[in-house]
Fold:
Amino acid sequence: MTSNAADAAPKQPVVAVLGTGIMGSAMARSLLRAGLDVRAWNRTHSKAAPLAAAGATVTETAEEAVRGADVVLTMLNDGPSVAAALAAAAGGLHAGQVLVQSSTVGPEATVDLAQRTADLGPVYLDAPVAGTKQPAEQGALTVFVSGPSAVRAKAEPVLDAIGQRTVWVGEAPGAASRLKLVVNTWVITMVNNIAECLNLAEGLGVDPQSFLDLVKGGPLDSAYLQGKSAAVLSGDLTPSFTLSTALKDTRLILDAARSSGVRLDLVAASADRFSRAEAAGHGDEDMIATYYAGRAPGKDGG
Structure:
C-alpha cells in the first residue's frame, strides 16, 4: 500500500485575526502567504475589508471570526481593547482553541486576560512581538511567547508565519510581556535620542546630514538611526508604529517600573516628549514625530 504525502501532511490551522490595524493586517497577510485559512475582524470594518482581496474571509462580528477557528490571534491597541474583543467573540470561543495574544498590554493586563480566556475555554499564549510595519509585512517579526508548552505544536504554524524567530520564555503568561517591555524601553529611548540629536543639530545650525555621514558605518551607526532620521528629513512620517501607540507602551513601562521599585528617568522624559508631540497633532504619525516635541517655539511644523 502506498501513502499519499498530502494526506500525511499536518492540517494547517484556521486562524481568526482580531484587530487589523497597521500590525494586525500585515500579520494577517503573512498568514495568508503561508497558506493558512484566515478570518479577519476589526471593530472598524473598513480596516479589515482590504484583506478580502488577499484571500481572507472578512467577518462582520468577532464571534463569527472565531467560531470554528483553531487559533485566535489578537493584535489590538491595549488591554481593554483585547478584553472587549474577547467579550464580543465569547459565543464562538471554546476549549481546544489557542489564543495567541500579541498586543502589548503589560504584565498586569496579561494575567487578567489569561484568566478571562481560561473562563471562555481557549488556552492563552502571551505572545507580544518585536518589530514594526515592514517586518510584520515580511513575516519577519520576533515573537516572545510564554504559556503552556502543550499547545506549542498547534501554535507553531501561526508563529512561524508571522515571525522569523520565536523565543519561548516560560510556561506562565506574563513572562513574555515583561521581556517585551524591556525591549520596548530600548526602542523608546533610542527613538527619542535620535530626535534630540536632530533637534540640537537644527538649533545649532548644524546640517543634520553631516552628523549622519560622520557616524555612518562606524560603531555609533545603526540602520535605525539612518532610517528614522531619513523619515524626519524627508518629511515622510507615514507610520510603521504610531507615536500614540509608543506613548501607550511608554506608560506601560513606567507602570511596571513603579510596581517593581525601579526608576527610569529616560523613559519618563520620553513620555513627556511623546505627550507634547501628540498634543501638537502628531499622534497618528510615526513615533519619530517625537522630533517635533523638541523644536524651538514657532517651529513645531504641525
